[in-house]
Design a protein that fits this description.
single chain, 102 residues, mainly alpha
């Protein structure tokens, strides 16, 4: 289990770097306008579906993190919530699993 924990840390790091590289590329090409990026996310039905899929996953993860953190009193685990909404589920979920298995 100990080695598997480090795999989740690696996934959290990858889930930070890979998506952020795409976001930074987009911002550099289109300007640093978050509203414009949100508009781009809803350019067609496929991208809107993906946005809502990830939104529901982020909310489910947030509920899970809050419930387990209140029960376990391991408050550092709450860091997975801003990681999820500022970076993405690809970072927040593996980060939470890494922290949970501490």
């Amino acid at each position: 289990m100990r080695q598997l924990r480090w795999i989740f840390l690696g996934l959290a790091i990858w889930g930070t770097i890979h998506p952020m590289s795409w976001f930074i590329t987009w911002f550099n090409a289109n300007g640093y306008d978050l509203a414009k990026m949100v508009d781009a996310w809803h350019v067609n039905a496929a991208t809107s579906g993906l946005v809502w899929d990830l939104t529901v996953a982020a909310v489910a993860l947030t509920v899970w993190v809050i419930i387990e953190t209140v029960q376990s009193k391991k408050w550092i685990n709450l860091i997975a919530i801003p990681a999820t909404f500022c970076i993405g589920v690809s970072c927040g979920l593996p980060l939470y699993i890494f922290l949970r298995w501490r």
